[in-house]
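Database export, one record per block. Field names are fixed; values are copied verbatim from the stored entry.
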Amino acid sequence: MVIFDPPITGASPRSVSAAQLQRFARRAQTLARVKGEVDILIATNKRLRDLNRRFRRKDKPTDVLSFPRPSGGDIAISAQIARDNAQRYGHSLAIELKILVLHGMLHLAGYDHESDNGRMARAESRLRSQLKLPASLIDRTHSSGKGPKAKLRASITKSASIRHKSAAAKRIARNAP
């Protein structure tokens, strides 16, 4: 079951529906091999912060939390963070919610990207491709400062900085007595 609590504001009813997300969740659940019933809550940052503080002792909102049960489990997603990420990465809110559902589903399947040496990242990448989703949550997290694109950006920034300093040095030299 998918519950929006409260309903997402600022999104058209066609852009995100509980039925659409439920169909996707069933498919992701099958591919991730999660048995049992999975319930998904799409809630506010406040609600996710409360859950994160209570269960992980982290006093901040987070994008997705997973709570495994012996059979199935629960997934909680921040609507605000999902909306912000959708805008940041240039895709719809529905796509972002699907990315977060898949990530949560893999946690329910027993994966833990904080300690599994890339096992969850590989599974998420493979399933993301099967489900026709853009960059996974793990891919985005790792590329936000350490991947090849980040190194290229740093190199370009450094080159621009060197050119700027060279031009400034030449201007100073021309104006020197």
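Remark 1: The radius of gyration is 21 Å.
Remark 2: The chain has two domains: 2-144, 145-177.
End of record.
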